[in-house]
What does this fold into?
Amino acid sequence: MANPAPELYLENQLCFPLYAASRLTTKIYTPFLEELGITYPQYLVLLTLWQFQEQSVKSIGKRLFLESNTLTPLLKRLEQKNLIQRIRSKTDERTVMITLTQAGMELKEKAVEIPKKIVESFHDKIISEDEILSFQKTLFKLLNVLDKKVSE
Amino acid sequence: MANPAPELYLENQLCFPLYAASRLTTKIYTPFLEELGITYPQYLVLLTLWQFQEQSVKSIGKRLFLESNTLTPLLKRLEQKNLIQRIRSKTDERTVMITLTQAGMELKEKAVEIPKKIVESFHDKIISEDEILSFQKTLFKLLNVLDKKVSE
DNA sequence: AAGGATTAAATCGTGTGCGATTTAAATGTA
DNA sequence: TACATTTAAATCGCACACGATTTAATCCTT
It folds into this structure.
Protein backbone atom coordinates (compact mmCIF):
# COMPACT_ATOMS: atom_id res chain seq x y z
CA MET A 1 0.00 0.00 0.00
CA ALA A 2 1.86 2.95 -1.39
CA ASN A 3 -0.19 5.98 -0.44
CA PRO A 4 -3.50 5.34 1.21
CA ALA A 5 -6.18 7.99 1.75
CA PRO A 6 -4.84 10.99 -0.17
CA GLU A 7 -8.06 12.78 0.79
CA LEU A 8 -6.50 13.05 4.24
CA TYR A 9 -3.29 14.73 3.05
CA LEU A 10 -2.64 18.14 4.51
CA GLU A 11 -2.00 19.60 1.07
CA ASN A 12 -5.40 18.45 -0.17
CA GLN A 13 -7.29 20.20 2.58
CA LEU A 14 -8.96 23.58 2.38
CA CYS A 15 -9.54 24.12 6.06
CA PHE A 16 -5.95 23.58 7.15
CA PRO A 17 -4.36 26.30 4.99
CA LEU A 18 -7.15 28.66 6.03
CA TYR A 19 -6.39 27.91 9.65
CA ALA A 20 -2.65 28.32 9.22
CA ALA A 21 -2.85 31.43 7.02
CA SER A 22 -5.23 33.07 9.45
CA ARG A 23 -2.85 32.53 12.35
CA LEU A 24 0.17 33.69 10.38
CA THR A 25 -1.51 36.89 9.18
CA THR A 26 -2.48 37.64 12.77
CA LYS A 27 1.17 37.22 13.64
CA ILE A 28 2.11 39.77 10.99
CA TYR A 29 -0.31 42.27 12.53
CA THR A 30 0.83 41.69 16.11
CA PRO A 31 3.92 43.95 16.26
CA PHE A 32 1.92 46.85 14.77
CA LEU A 33 -0.98 46.28 17.14
CA GLU A 34 1.32 46.05 20.12
CA GLU A 35 2.21 49.69 19.50
CA LEU A 36 -1.49 50.46 19.99
CA GLY A 37 -1.66 48.17 23.00
CA ILE A 38 -4.36 45.91 21.55
CA THR A 39 -4.77 42.35 20.27
CA TYR A 40 -6.00 41.34 16.82
CA PRO A 41 -9.56 40.45 17.88
CA GLN A 42 -9.72 43.72 19.82
CA TYR A 43 -8.58 45.51 16.66
CA LEU A 44 -11.43 43.89 14.73
CA VAL A 45 -13.96 45.15 17.28
CA LEU A 46 -12.52 48.64 16.98
CA LEU A 47 -12.71 48.39 13.17
CA THR A 48 -16.46 47.77 13.40
CA LEU A 49 -16.88 50.70 15.77
CA TRP A 50 -14.80 53.05 13.63
CA GLN A 51 -16.79 52.01 10.57
CA PHE A 52 -20.31 51.74 11.97
CA GLN A 53 -20.22 53.76 15.21
CA GLU A 54 -22.20 52.83 18.32
CA GLN A 55 -23.41 49.25 18.30
CA SER A 56 -24.80 46.49 20.47
CA VAL A 57 -22.75 43.46 21.44
CA LYS A 58 -25.06 41.43 19.22
CA SER A 59 -24.42 43.64 16.21
CA ILE A 60 -20.64 43.53 16.61
CA GLY A 61 -20.95 39.76 16.92
CA LYS A 62 -22.90 39.52 13.67
CA ARG A 63 -20.25 41.44 11.80
CA LEU A 64 -17.33 39.45 13.22
CA PHE A 65 -19.07 36.06 13.54
CA LEU A 66 -18.55 36.05 17.28
CA GLU A 67 -20.90 35.65 20.22
CA SER A 68 -21.27 37.17 23.64
CA ASN A 69 -19.28 34.40 25.31
CA THR A 70 -16.23 35.65 23.42
CA LEU A 71 -17.14 39.32 23.14
CA THR A 72 -18.18 40.15 26.70
CA PRO A 73 -14.77 39.51 28.27
CA LEU A 74 -12.97 41.05 25.30
CA LEU A 75 -15.12 44.19 25.54
CA LYS A 76 -14.45 44.43 29.24
CA ARG A 77 -10.74 44.47 28.47
CA LEU A 78 -11.23 47.25 25.91
CA GLU A 79 -13.23 49.13 28.53
CA GLN A 80 -10.43 48.76 31.05
CA LYS A 81 -8.06 50.25 28.48
CA ASN A 82 -10.49 53.14 28.31
CA LEU A 83 -11.06 52.69 24.56
CA ILE A 84 -14.80 51.93 24.74
CA GLN A 85 -17.80 52.33 27.02
CA ARG A 86 -20.35 49.61 27.77
CA ILE A 87 -23.77 51.07 28.54
CA ARG A 88 -26.93 49.05 29.04
CA SER A 89 -29.68 50.41 26.80
CA LYS A 90 -32.49 52.31 28.51
CA THR A 91 -35.09 51.30 25.92
CA ASP A 92 -34.19 47.59 25.97
CA GLU A 93 -32.36 46.57 29.09
CA ARG A 94 -31.27 43.29 27.54
CA THR A 95 -28.87 44.95 25.14
CA VAL A 96 -25.55 46.59 25.95
CA MET A 97 -24.48 49.40 23.66
CA ILE A 98 -20.78 49.87 22.90
CA THR A 99 -19.44 53.33 22.15
CA LEU A 100 -15.95 54.63 21.52
CA THR A 101 -14.32 56.90 24.07
CA GLN A 102 -12.27 59.88 22.93
CA ALA A 103 -9.15 57.74 23.25
CA GLY A 104 -10.85 55.01 21.21
CA MET A 105 -11.69 57.45 18.44
CA GLU A 106 -8.21 58.90 18.46
CA LEU A 107 -6.62 55.47 18.17
CA LYS A 108 -8.06 55.26 14.67
CA GLU A 109 -5.53 57.82 13.44
CA LYS A 110 -2.71 55.50 14.42
CA ALA A 111 -4.52 52.44 13.08
CA VAL A 112 -4.89 53.98 9.61
CA GLU A 113 -1.18 53.47 9.06
CA ILE A 114 -1.34 49.73 9.68
CA PRO A 115 -2.90 48.44 6.42
CA LYS A 116 -0.35 50.47 4.44
CA LYS A 117 2.53 48.96 6.39
CA ILE A 118 1.12 45.46 6.00
CA VAL A 119 0.69 45.85 2.25
CA GLU A 120 4.18 47.31 1.92
CA SER A 121 5.67 44.39 3.78
CA PHE A 122 3.97 42.17 1.20
CA HIS A 123 5.73 43.30 -1.93
CA ASP A 124 6.29 39.76 -2.99
CA LYS A 125 6.23 39.06 -6.68
CA ILE A 126 5.02 35.51 -6.21
CA ILE A 127 1.43 36.70 -5.86
CA SER A 128 0.10 39.40 -8.16
CA GLU A 129 -2.31 42.15 -7.15
CA ASP A 130 -4.96 40.62 -9.42
CA GLU A 131 -4.54 37.21 -7.89
CA ILE A 132 -4.99 38.65 -4.41
CA LEU A 133 -8.15 40.50 -5.48
CA SER A 134 -9.80 37.44 -6.99
CA PHE A 135 -8.66 35.47 -3.97
CA GLN A 136 -10.31 37.98 -1.67
CA LYS A 137 -13.49 37.79 -3.75
CA THR A 138 -13.70 34.01 -3.42
CA LEU A 139 -12.83 34.29 0.26
CA PHE A 140 -15.82 36.51 0.94
CA LYS A 141 -18.07 34.25 -1.14
CA LEU A 142 -16.81 31.30 0.88
CA LEU A 143 -17.42 33.17 4.10
CA ASN A 144 -21.01 33.69 3.01
CA VAL A 145 -21.55 30.04 2.17
CA LEU A 146 -19.94 28.94 5.42
CA ASP A 147 -22.05 31.33 7.45
CA LYS A 148 -25.22 29.90 5.90
CA LYS A 149 -24.05 26.33 6.47
CA VAL A 150 -23.13 26.94 10.08
CA SER A 151 -26.41 28.62 10.95
CA GLU A 152 -28.50 25.87 9.35
CA MET B 1 -16.64 63.83 6.16
CA ALA B 2 -18.55 61.10 4.40
CA ASN B 3 -16.53 57.95 4.72
CA PRO B 4 -13.12 58.30 6.24
CA ALA B 5 -10.44 55.63 6.12
CA PRO B 6 -11.90 53.01 3.79
CA GLU B 7 -8.67 51.08 4.20
CA LEU B 8 -9.99 50.20 7.64
CA TYR B 9 -13.28 48.76 6.38
CA LEU B 10 -13.87 45.13 7.25
CA GLU B 11 -14.71 44.30 3.65
CA ASN B 12 -11.38 45.67 2.43
CA GLN B 13 -9.34 43.48 4.68
CA LEU B 14 -7.71 40.21 3.81
CA CYS B 15 -6.91 39.02 7.28
CA PHE B 16 -10.42 39.36 8.66
CA PRO B 17 -12.17 37.04 6.17
CA LEU B 18 -9.33 34.54 6.62
CA TYR B 19 -9.86 34.66 10.36
CA ALA B 20 -13.63 34.31 10.08
CA ALA B 21 -13.57 31.63 7.36
CA SER B 22 -11.07 29.60 9.32
CA ARG B 23 -13.26 29.61 12.40
CA LEU B 24 -16.41 28.79 10.44
CA THR B 25 -14.81 25.86 8.61
CA THR B 26 -13.63 24.50 11.94
CA LYS B 27 -17.23 24.72 13.10
CA ILE B 28 -18.32 22.68 10.09
CA TYR B 29 -15.84 19.96 11.02
CA THR B 30 -16.76 19.90 14.71
CA PRO B 31 -19.84 17.63 14.64
CA PHE B 32 -17.95 15.06 12.54
CA LEU B 33 -14.90 15.20 14.79
CA GLU B 34 -17.02 14.89 17.91
CA GLU B 35 -17.97 11.42 16.71
CA LEU B 36 -14.26 10.59 16.83
CA GLY B 37 -13.89 12.29 20.19
CA ILE B 38 -11.26 14.80 19.00
CA THR B 39 -10.93 18.53 18.33
CA TYR B 40 -9.89 20.15 15.05
CA PRO B 41 -6.25 20.85 16.04
CA GLN B 42 -6.02 17.29 17.36
CA TYR B 43 -7.36 16.09 13.99
CA LEU B 44 -4.60 18.03 12.22
CA VAL B 45 -1.95 16.36 14.36
CA LEU B 46 -3.42 12.97 13.53
CA LEU B 47 -3.44 13.88 9.83
CA THR B 48 0.31 14.48 9.94
CA LEU B 49 0.86 11.18 11.72
CA TRP B 50 -1.35 9.24 9.32
CA GLN B 51 0.45 10.82 6.38
CA PHE B 52 4.05 10.84 7.59
CA GLN B 53 4.15 8.28 10.42
CA GLU B 54 6.30 8.66 13.52
CA GLN B 55 7.53 12.18 14.06
CA SER B 56 9.06 14.52 16.61
CA VAL B 57 7.09 17.33 18.22
CA LYS B 58 9.26 19.74 16.25
CA SER B 59 8.44 18.08 12.94
CA ILE B 60 4.69 18.11 13.60
CA GLY B 61 5.02 21.76 14.53
CA LYS B 62 6.80 22.58 11.26
CA ARG B 63 4.01 21.02 9.23
CA LEU B 64 1.20 22.71 11.18
CA PHE B 65 2.99 25.99 11.97
CA LEU B 66 2.69 25.33 15.70
CA GLU B 67 5.21 25.22 18.50
CA SER B 68 5.78 23.12 21.59
CA ASN B 69 3.89 25.56 23.81
CA THR B 70 0.72 24.63 21.92
CA LEU B 71 1.61 21.07 20.97
CA THR B 72 2.86 19.64 24.24
CA PRO B 73 -0.45 19.97 26.12
CA LEU B 74 -2.42 18.95 23.03
CA LEU B 75 -0.28 15.85 22.56
CA LYS B 76 -0.73 14.94 26.21
CA ARG B 77 -4.48 15.02 25.65
CA LEU B 78 -4.14 12.74 22.63
CA GLU B 79 -2.01 10.44 24.74
CA GLN B 80 -4.66 10.31 27.45
CA LYS B 81 -7.18 9.30 24.80
CA ASN B 82 -4.79 6.49 23.96
CA LEU B 83 -4.43 7.62 20.33
CA ILE B 84 -0.69 8.34 20.42
CA GLN B 85 2.43 7.57 22.41
CA ARG B 86 5.05 10.12 23.48
CA ILE B 87 8.49 8.58 23.76
CA ARG B 88 11.69 10.49 24.42
CA SER B 89 14.27 9.56 21.83
CA LYS B 90 17.17 7.39 22.99
CA THR B 91 19.62 8.87 20.48
CA ASP B 92 18.74 12.51 21.23
CA GLU B 93 17.11 12.95 24.59
CA ARG B 94 15.95 16.45 23.72
CA THR B 95 13.39 15.21 21.22
CA VAL B 96 10.12 13.45 21.91
CA MET B 97 8.90 11.09 19.23
CA ILE B 98 5.18 10.75 18.63
CA THR B 99 3.80 7.46 17.36
CA LEU B 100 0.25 6.28 16.71
CA THR B 101 -1.24 3.58 18.91
CA GLN B 102 -3.35 0.83 17.39
CA ALA B 103 -6.45 2.88 18.26
CA GLY B 104 -4.88 5.92 16.64
CA MET B 105 -4.20 4.02 13.44
CA GLU B 106 -7.67 2.57 13.39
CA LEU B 107 -9.28 5.99 13.84
CA LYS B 108 -8.05 6.82 10.35
CA GLU B 109 -10.66 4.52 8.83
CA LYS B 110 -13.40 6.61 10.38
CA ALA B 111 -11.67 9.88 9.50
CA VAL B 112 -11.51 8.97 5.81
CA GLU B 113 -15.24 9.55 5.59
CA ILE B 114 -15.03 13.13 6.85
CA PRO B 115 -13.65 14.96 3.77
CA LYS B 116 -16.34 13.31 1.63
CA LYS B 117 -19.08 14.44 3.98
CA ILE B 118 -17.69 17.96 4.14
CA VAL B 119 -17.47 18.24 0.36
CA GLU B 120 -20.98 16.85 0.00
CA SER B 121 -22.33 19.39 2.42
CA PHE B 122 -20.75 22.02 0.18
CA HIS B 123 -22.69 21.46 -2.99
CA ASP B 124 -23.32 25.15 -3.38
CA LYS B 125 -23.50 26.45 -6.89
CA ILE B 126 -22.21 29.88 -5.88
CA ILE B 127 -18.63 28.64 -5.97
CA SER B 128 -17.46 26.37 -8.77
CA GLU B 129 -15.00 23.52 -8.39
CA ASP B 130 -12.49 25.43 -10.52
CA GLU B 131 -12.79 28.52 -8.41
CA ILE B 132 -12.14 26.52 -5.26
CA LEU B 133 -9.09 24.90 -6.82
CA SER B 134 -7.50 28.18 -7.87
CA PHE B 135 -8.45 29.60 -4.50
CA GLN B 136 -6.68 26.74 -2.78
CA LYS B 137 -3.65 27.29 -4.98
CA THR B 138 -3.38 30.95 -4.00
CA LEU B 139 -4.03 30.05 -0.38
CA PHE B 140 -1.01 27.74 -0.29
CA LYS B 141 1.12 30.34 -2.06
CA LEU B 142 0.01 32.89 0.51
CA LEU B 143 0.79 30.48 3.31
CA ASN B 144 4.29 30.18 1.93
CA VAL B 145 4.81 33.92 1.72
CA LEU B 146 3.41 34.43 5.21
CA ASP B 147 5.62 31.74 6.65
CA LYS B 148 8.68 33.42 5.19
CA LYS B 149 7.57 36.84 6.44
CA VAL B 150 6.87 35.60 9.94
CA SER B 151 10.17 33.78 10.33
CA GLU B 152 12.18 36.78 9.10
C1' DA C 1 38.11 18.01 27.48
C1' DA C 2 35.79 22.65 28.88
C1' DG C 3 32.50 25.93 28.28
C1' DG C 4 29.57 28.82 25.67
C1' DA C 5 26.00 28.56 22.00
C1' DT C 6 22.23 26.18 20.11
C1' DT C 7 18.33 23.24 20.13
C1' DA C 8 13.88 20.63 21.66
C1' DA C 9 10.35 20.38 25.00
C1' DA C 10 8.14 21.97 28.65
C1' DT C 11 6.18 25.55 31.57
C1' DC C 12 3.79 29.87 32.61
C1' DG C 13 0.52 33.56 31.97
C1' DT C 14 -2.79 35.95 29.16
C1' DG C 15 -6.30 36.17 25.71
C1' DT C 16 -9.24 34.23 22.87
C1' DG C 17 -13.13 30.76 20.89
C1' DC C 18 -16.99 28.25 21.84
C1' DG C 19 -20.59 24.73 23.58
C1' DA C 20 -23.66 24.81 27.24
C1' DT C 21 -26.13 27.01 30.66
C1' DT C 22 -27.99 30.93 33.37
C1' DT C 23 -30.11 35.38 34.16
C1' DA C 24 -33.06 38.90 33.19
C1' DA C 25 -35.78 41.50 30.09
C1' DA C 26 -39.04 41.77 26.28
C1' DT C 27 -42.48 39.61 23.37
C1' DG C 28 -46.31 36.87 21.91
C1' DT C 29 -50.54 34.59 22.87
C1' DA C 30 -54.34 32.66 25.04
C1' DT D 1 -53.35 40.44 32.37
C1' DA D 2 -50.83 35.80 33.17
C1' DC D 3 -47.46 32.92 31.36
C1' DA D 4 -44.78 30.46 28.12
C1' DT D 5 -41.43 31.76 24.52
C1' DT D 6 -37.85 34.27 22.74
C1' DT D 7 -33.93 37.20 23.00
C1' DA D 8 -29.38 39.55 24.68
C1' DA D 9 -25.64 39.25 27.79
C1' DA D 10 -23.20 37.06 30.96
C1' DT D 11 -21.08 33.04 33.10
C1' DC D 12 -18.62 28.63 33.20
C1' DG D 13 -15.38 25.18 31.73
C1' DC D 14 -12.25 23.46 28.48
C1' DA D 15 -8.99 23.68 24.67
C1' DC D 16 -6.27 26.10 22.04
C1' DA D 17 -2.50 29.95 20.51
C1' DC D 18 1.44 32.22 21.60
C1' DG D 19 5.17 35.39 23.71
C1' DA D 20 8.48 34.67 27.09
C1' DT D 21 11.16 31.91 29.92
C1' DT D 22 13.16 27.59 31.79
C1' DT D 23 15.31 23.09 31.63
C1' DA D 24 18.09 19.77 29.84
C1' DA D 25 20.65 17.80 26.17
C1' DT D 26 23.65 18.30 22.20
C1' DC D 27 26.80 20.83 19.36
C1' DC D 28 30.63 23.70 18.33
C1' DT D 29 34.92 25.91 18.91
C1' DT D 30 38.98 26.40 20.80
About this structure: Residues 39-42, 66-67, 69-70, 73-74, 77, 92-95 of chain A lie near DNA strand C (CB under 10 Å from a C1'). Chain A touches chain B through 61 residues (CB under 8 Å). The mean pLDDT of chain A is 92.
